[in-house]
Prior knowledge:
Number of helices: 10
Structural class: alpha+beta
Largest sheet: 6 strands, mixed
Bound molecules: adenosine-5'-diphosphate, magnesium ion
Oligomer: single chain
Helix content: 25-40%
Number of strands: 10
Amino acid sequence: MKRRAQRRGEFDLIAKYFAPLARGETGALGLTDDAAYLSPAAGRDVVVTTDAIVEGVHFLPGDPPAAIAQKALRVNISDLAAKGAKPRAYMLTAILPSMIDDDWLAAFASGLKQDQKRFGLTLIGGDTVSTRGPLTLSITAIGEVACGRMVKRSGAQVGDDVWVSGSIGDAGLGLIQSTPQKLSLPTVHTSYLISRYQVPQPRLTLGLALVGLAHACIDVSDGLVADLGHICTASGVSILVNGADIPLSRAAAAALAAGEISLESLLTSGDDYELAFTAPASARTRLTGIAATLKIKIARIGRAGGGEGVSVLDDDSKPLHFDRRGFTHF
Ligand code: ADP
Ligand code: MG
């Protein structure tokens, strides 16, 4: 039987798997103190966000440990990206069932290590506890943005264009394709969709470039309609979306064309981690230039107006009807 990691105690586990991830940030103190400290660079605001992921809710039992690690980190990086903040550090609360073993922890830590390098942040602390419940990971990510420049949900103005990055609905399809109820789609589409569900691609370079350009921004985590609704509520605007302009991957377009899924489902399923943002029409050329430079697709999908709420028009300009607007926990 494999040796269970917790038997060696929580401190050995922290020293072995987590302390190496804290190198490079002096204030992390090698994860040996009660707390860490950070000094923001001059003229920068600290931006803080937290998100937890739970087995059976945000990932499936048996998902690869490195993918789980990266999802835990990336959902937080996506929040920083949406605010135009450059990631710097993070804290990890790991709530681990007893079957977690050394191999699992090693793979988990290597997933974190790769993403630290990729997104430029360092582990500075956390907590490690055991549970008889599901594996749960809570990360608090800390980033920096020029003072007063954090891109909020509340800045959208009447007349703004509404944009979204990447493609919408893939992760929701990936979740379906990870279950026995999976739709009949070609294998190549299914593996693409599952990877979109398991390991999101936060649009960090785009988010950083939107500072000073976007009026409002949110990352699409609950579903496009629900998340655009959050911009509407915070900004006091309405948003009208042209369904035909919503960017779909080849896999999602194939599922839609085959009648395996509805556009309504694609627009209300969660976990896309794309950026949805509004900007004045005068920013169009700059935005398309930025997207081309960064090699990230962005699509102009609608407009902000007076009133409230999100409407999506189909090809015949008739409003789509949504039974639910996105994922909610309660
Ligand atoms: P305390 O009892 O003072 O809260 P802990 O025993 O929980 O301290 O943690 C000891 C040190 O290890 C602290 O610096 C803490 O931040 C760090 N630490 C604990 N768990 C983790 C983790 N999962 N990831 C990163 N650092 C951790
Ligand atoms: Mg503690």
